[in-house]
Amino acid sequence: MSRLHNTHCEKLEKVIMVFLFFLVLVLLSGFKESNNTQLVSLYDGWYRVEDGKRIDVKLPGFIPKDSSNNIVLYNDSLSAEDVNKVISFDEVTDGLSISVGDNILYKYQDTSFVRNKQMKGKLWADAVLPVEISDIPLCVTYENVKDSKMLISPPVIGSLQRMASFHMQNSNLVLFITQAMFCLSIISSAIYSYMKHHGIQEKRFLDVALFLCICSYWCRTDSGLFQVNGKFIAKGSLLSFYAFMLMSVPMVHFVKNTVHDDKKWLPRLWIIVLYCNAILQGIVHLIFKIQFIKMLSITHVLLFTGVISMTYLLWKEYKQYKTKELELCLNAFGLLGASGVLALLLYWLLQIPWYDAIFQLGILLFVIILFFGIIQKVSDDISFHIEQTIYEKMSMEDRLTGLQNKKAFDKFMNEQIVIKHKKDTIWLLIHLDDLREINRIYGFDTGDEIVIAASSCIKKACNSITGNSEELFRVKGDEFVVVINNPAKDEKEYIQLIEDEVKKYNLSNGSKCKVHLSYQQCTLKEIDNKVNAEGVKEKQNEL
Questions:
Q1: Helix (H) or strand (E) holding 50
Q2: Sheet containing 156-158: which strands, arranged edge to edge?
Q3: H or E element that contains 64
Q4: Ordered alpha helix ranges (H), 53-137
Q5: What is the DSSP letter of 402?
Q6: Where are the beta strands (DSSP E) in 423-467?
Q7: Which of 82, 488, 515, 539 could disulfide-pair with 467, CB 3.0 to 4.6 Å?
Q8: Would the pTM count as exceeding 0.70?
Q9: What is the pLDDT of residues 220-251, one digit of tens each?
Q10: Sign of the CA dihedral running 382, 271, 278, 227
Q11: Which H or E run includes 522?
Q12: Which residue positions in the chain have pLDDT lower than 70?
C-alpha cells in the first residue's frame, strides 16, 4: 500500500512539474525587455504665476493652490525635438487638464462608469505634444484642489512606442498576478477532471478554478492598463465590479464542500447574501441612477465579514477534527483576511491607488496555500481509491481461473433481478465431472490443472463468436455459469463449440486425466435457486 501511494505521489508530482514548466513559459512571454533610455522625466522648467510674478517650481514637490482652489503649472523648456512625443502624468484627478494655449491636449472625463479617487490614481494622463509646443508654454491645471498643497510628481516624456512599453512595464505585477491566476485555474480544472475520471468527486478544485478565473478578470480590468487602453472601458469596468462582488462565491462554496453537513447552512446563507447584493446593486443603479462606486462600501463590508465568518467556521471545524487539511485552509483564509483588511485600510484611510496589489498578492498566496494543501489530501484519496478498486477486483475474481467468482455472480444476479432481465439470453450451468476423484487419486495440483483447462475451453468457445457478450463465472470448485447476452447461436451450438475445445485439449494432453463436462440449460430463476441452494447445502455440510 505504501509503495502504491509513493508511486502515485511521484506521478502527481511529475504532472505538477510539467504544468509549472508551462506556467513559467507563459509568464516569460508576458515580460518583454525594453530600452527606456529615451524616456525623460521632466523635473525642471516648471513655474507658476502668483500676483503676476513667475515662481519657479521643481518637481516632485508640494505645490500650493491659488485663491480659486486651482493649481496651474507652466513649462517653457520643451523644444521642437519634443513635437509628437507623449507626455504622461502618473495620477489623474477630476480637474486635471493639459493644454497648449487654447488647444486642450488632455482633460479627464468620466465615462458612463464613474470612478473614485483611488481608481483614478491608477490611470495615466497621456497627451501628444503639438507642433506649437516650442512657441507656447505647456499648461497643466488641477481644478478644485481640496487641500492647501498637493504633491505633484514630474511627468515622463518619450515616443509613443516607448511610452506604451513604459506603461506595460509598470503593469508587470498585475500581468504576473493575472497570468499566474489563470494558469493555476487551468491546473486546478485539470486536476478536477483527472479525479472525476477516476471516480473521485472533489468539487473544491472546481471552486478554486472558478475563483481564480474571476479574480484574474477582476485584476486585469481593474488595472490602469485596461482603464486607459482597453476596449469597451465602461462595460469592462462594470463587469469588473460584478466580478469583485461575486469573486468570493466560489470560495464560500469551497468552505461548504470542506465542512461537515451540520455547518453547511452558514456558507449557503452567505452565498444567497452575496448574490442578493449583486442583484440589488444592479436594480438600484437602473432605477435610482446611483453609481456603483457609491455602493462599493457595502461590498467591502460583505466581503470582509464573509471572510471573517468563513475563517471562524473553519476554526470551529478544526477544533473538532484537527486535520492537517483544515489547518492549511484556516491559515489560508487568515492570510486572505489580513491582506483584505490591509487593502481596505489603504483604500479608505490613505486612499492609496495601489491598494489592490496588496489584496491581489494575498489572493495569490491564499490560493497557493489552499491548492497545495488539498493536493496531499487528494493524493491520499486517489491512492485509497486505486487500492479499493484493486481490492474489489481481486475480491470478485477467481484466482485460479481468472473468471468471476461466486461473489461477483451474486452481485450480477441481483442486478439482473433489479433491472428486469432481457429474454434474449442463454444461461448455461456447466459441471466439471469427476473433479473429486481426480483430486483424490492424482492430487490437488492435477485437479487445479483440469479446472484451469476447463475454464480455458469455455472462454475460447465463447470468444470464438463475435456479436455477443458473455459473463463467465466459477461459482463452485467444479461448476461454472455462462451467461450469453444477445447470442449469435442457440445453446446447442454453444455447447458443441465448448465440446470441440474440450476434445482439442484432451487430444493434446498426454496426462491420464481428461476434461469431461456436463451441461444444463436454465432460466435466470433456476440458475439463481440452484447455485444458492447448493451453496447453503455446502455450508451446512461444513458445519
A1: strand 46-50
A2: 40-41, 156-158, 86-89, 125-128
A3: strand 61-64
A4: 117-120
A5: S
A6: 425-432
A7: 488
A8: no
A9: 777 766 655 555 566 777 788 888 888 889 98
A10: negative
A11: strand 517-522
A12: 1-37, 91, 94, 110-122, 171, 198, 224-234, 348-356, 373-386, 417-423, 465-469, 510-512, 528, 530-543
Hey, what's the cell of 342? 490591509
Superfamily of the domain at 406-542: Reverse transcriptase/Diguanylate cyclase domain (3.30.70.270)
Checking 235-241 for CB contacts under 8 A at 24+ apart, the result is 237/111, 237/113, 237/115, 238/113, 238/292, 241/292, 241/296
CA–CA separation, 501 vs 517, rounded Å? 11
23 with 183: CB under 8 angstroms? yes
Residue type, 159: S
Neighbours of 542 (CB within 10 A): 6
pLDDT of residue 542: 43
The answer to whether 242 touches 298, Cβ cutoff 8 Å, is no
* H/E run at residue 157: strand 156-158
- By C-alpha distance, which of 419, 394, 418 is closest to 407? 394
Three cell numbers, residue 380: 491520499
> Furthest-apart CA pair in the chain: how many Å?
129
351: left (phi over 0), alpha (psi -120 to 50) or beta: left
Residue 418's Cβ-side half-sphere holds a number of Cα atoms within 13 Å equal to: 6
What are the residue ranges spanned by the domains of the chain? 12-31+168-375, 42-154, 406-542
CA–CA dist 116, 218 (Å, integer) = 17
DSSP reduced 3-state for 74: strand
- In 419-443, which ranges are continuous DSSP H helix? 435-442
- Side chain identity, residue 484: I
Instruction: Tell which residue, 316, 315, 361, 357, has the closest CA to residue 334.
Output: 315
Cell numbers representing residue 387 in the block? 487500492
